[in-house]
Write a structure and sequence with these properties.
Layout (H helix, E strand, L loop, with lengths): L7 H30 L9 H28 L20 H22 L1 H4 L1 H8 L1 H16 L6 H24 L5 H12 L1 H11 L6 H4 L4 H4 L19 E14 L2 E11 L5 E10 L5 E11 L7 E9 L2 E8 L4 E9 L4 E10 L16
Antiparallel strand pairs: 1-2, 1-8, 2-3, 3-4, 4-5, 5-6, 6-7, 7-8
Helix pairs in contact: 1-2, 1-6, 1-7, 3-5, 3-6, 7-8, 7-9
This protein binds protoporphyrin IX containing FE (HEM).
Protoporphyrin IX containing FE (HEM) binds next to α1, α2, α3 and α6.
Length: 370
């Protein structure tokens, strides 16, 4: 059931959070590894201390990877079998993009195992397998951009492109200081590496940042809920739908007019009955800094097209709107929209609870219907 803490939402937050921290740790460790190979060490730090840091960061990455995979597997919203965490490209959920994560895991596992067996394998074997790190990292970045549901959040996307920029800068620095191969070849290599952040930006603009990416990336229809039939009562009238909790991803704009401000929030509902939700609020800023909502309207159009729910905003609390929706000829349905972060923003995310539970507690009754 979709409580904010201790339930599937906690798993989802942990899955996303651990993924992002994991990418940060892998990036820092890759940068450190490239720098160590180039003979760099910070200030008076002895070489063994830098190497110990490199090893401990790798250990931290393994722990984070276990948390990331375990929370993804336990989260009932995303249908990923345990085998898909080990065998690339067999997941029913975004097979290719998730498969890249699995591939990265397999490559990293090979690096960890060969590092542990280093004394038995000999340095040249170990060095060859260690190069797999260079391959596993870009594969993990593509996985993050293609699978993550937060890629369209400005700070998440900025962070991911920032990781690419940091690694590119380190590689360029390393190649510039090298003496082999010939200068012309190194120049070409540096130009190619320098262009990777731009290439990632261009590809993301045409792919993960576009609306409709979830479907193109291979999210199962059940998760998109695009085929969910409208709930109908015994006499064919729209009735109370099955309660659900779903993710909401959209944008929020504000247009001030005198003392008043019209806030428009609209976006996609991922999960539940899917579709689109639009809220329009007319609010007045009070002298004590709080906001009083004069009137608010809401329209929810499930992915199946009908019934269309319209209604009003009953109250506004910190980060949440209590709504009442009614399908034409149907019963009133309580709903709650929670929004994470400030409004207005080009990208907002939150949760939509819709169902038969009393408004304000609906989330404790609704599961992540998928
Ligand atoms: C080194 C390997 C991996 C790294 C660095 C990594 C990193 C990430 C990152 C940064 C995200 C984006 C989170 C967000 O948008 O908030 C993500 C999402 C995801 N990862 Fe991984 N991952 C790895 C391996 C895996 C594996 C093996 C699986 C398979 C179980 C997996 C499954 C997922 C799923 C399902 C999501 C989407 C979560 C969501 O936003 O709803 N990842 N990963």
């Amino acid at each position: 059931m979709g409580t904010a803490l201790g339930g599937p939402m906690t798993l989802w937050y942990l899955a996303r959070g651990s993924g992002l921290v994991l990418l940060a740790v892998l990036t820092v460790n890759l940068v450190l590894g490239i720098a160590i190979q180039g003979g760099w060490h910070p200030g008076s730090w002895p070489r063994f201390a830098v190497q110990a840091m490199h090893r401990n960061l790798a250990l931290l990455a393994v722990v984070l990877l276990i948390i990331h995979v375990a929370t993804i597997e336990l989260d009932p919203f995303v249908p990923v079998g345990w085998w898909a965490a080990l065998v690339p490209f067999v997941s029913p959920y975004r097979p290719f993009w998730l498969g890249l994560g699995t591939l990265s895991l397999d490559l990293l596992a090979a690096v960890v195992v060969t590092s542990l067996l280093r004394s038995h394998l000999g340095p040249s074997w170990w060095r060859v397998t260690h190069w797999l790190t260079y391959l596993s990292w870009p594969v993990a970045v593509l996985h993050s951009l293609g699978t993550g549901s937060d890629t369209r959040l400005t700070w998440v996307f900025g962070f991911e492109v920032g990781c690419v920029g940091l690694v590119a800068a380190t590689v360029i620095f390393r190649v510039a200081r090298a003496t082999r191969p010939r200068a012309a070849v190194r120049g070409l290599l540096m130009a190619a590496v320098a262009s990777t952040p731009m290439a990632v930006l261009a590809w993301s603009a045409a792919g993960p940042l576009q609306s409709g990416w979830a479907r193109r990336a291979g999210t199962p229809t059940a998760v998109l809920a695009s085929a969910a039939p409208p709930a109908t009562g015994a006499r064919g009238q729209a009735s109370v739908p099955a309660p659900f909790t779903a993710r909401f991803l959209g944008s929020a704009t504000a247009s001030p007019r005198g003392q008043e401000e019209t806030i428009s929030i609209s976006g996609r509902v991922q999960g539940g009955d899917g579709g689109r939700l639009a809220v329009s609020l007319v609010a007045t800023q009070l002298p004590d800094g709080t906001v009083a909502v004069d009137r608010g309207t809401v329209t929810y159009r499930p992915a199946a097209g009908s019934p269309v729910y319209t209604g009003s905003v009953l109250s506004v609390g910190p980060g949440s709107l209590i709504l009442r929706l009614t399908a034409r000829g149907g019963t009133a349905v309580p709903a709650e929209l929670t929004i994470n972060g400030p409004v207005p923003a080009s990208s907002v995310s939150g949760l939509l609870y819709l169902g038969s539970a009393p408004a304000g507690r609906a989330g404790e009754d609704g599961g992540q219907d998928s």
